Amino acid sequence: MTKEIEAVAAVIEQDGKFLITKRLKESHLGHCWEFPGGKRENGETVEECAVRECQEEIGVVIEPVRYLKAVRYEYPDVKVFLHFVLCRLVSGDPQPIECADPTWIRPEEFAKYEFPAADRQVIEELIIRMGGEGRAPGRAERVSTAGRNPRQDPSEGTGG
Fold first, then answer.
1. Do residues 111 and 131 touch, judged by C-beta distance below 8 A?
2. Helix (H, G, I), strand (E, B) or coil at 108
3. Around 105, how many Cα atoms within 13 Å sit in the side-chain half-sphere?
4. Contact 19/103 with Cβ under 8 angstroms?
5. How confident is the model at residue 138, as a pLDDT?
6. How far apart are CA 114 and CA 35, in angstroms?
7. How many angstroms separate the first and last alpha carbons of the chain?
8. What is the arithmetic mean of pLDDT over 50-78?
9. What number is the average pLDDT over the span 149-157?
10. Is residue 116 predicted with pLDDT exceeding 60?
């Protein structure tokens, strides 16, 4: 039976750049880069998970700005339900605590880094938004998804 995990990725944007980290070599897809984040705990909202994981993984405090989307992806050895949340950095300097090489990149630099397949659609959308409109995505009021069914795909009826 294929293992299934639910995780959250914090898409942290600051001054037109995005924070990415290198996955640990011993982890699944350890050769790839990713947005900071990790597995969602029982009873935890998507936003709470993003905040906790960023504190644990890179030692920063973030604020979720808005829910971007959820992606379901099946790798040969694991099924992933991954939530992407646009966030802003509140305080701290990213440190490689449970990751390697925290790096700020511009949208046009995404192509230089290898990401897990589950991240590709969100990355493409970020590049389009940044290039097409000439400004950072999500410069809107903070929107909470606390009431969202944690197992519901936002593209299924919520307008996600």
1. no
2. helix
3. 20
4. yes
5. 37
6. 12
7. 30
8. 95
9. 36
10. yes
- In the chain, the DSSP E strands lie at 3-14, 17-22, 33-34, 37-39, 61-74, 78-91, 100-105
List the structure tokens of 50.
């993003």
Comparing CA positions, the residue from 20, 21, 32, 67 lying closest to residue 47 is 67
Virtual torsion, Cα 137, 45, 60, 11, nearest 10 deg: -20
- Rounded Cα gap, residues 129 and 143, in angstroms: 19
Rounded distance, CA 56 to CA 99, Å? 10
pLDDT at 135 exceeding the cut of 60: no
Under a CB-based contact definition with an 8 Å cutoff, are residues 47 and 10 in contact?
no
Indicate if the pLDDT at residue 5 is higher than 90: yes
Take residue 151 and report the two structure tokens written for it: 């197992």
Asked if the model's pLDDT at residue 55 lies above 60, the reply is yes
Predicted pLDDT of residue 35: 97
Report which residue type is found at 29: L
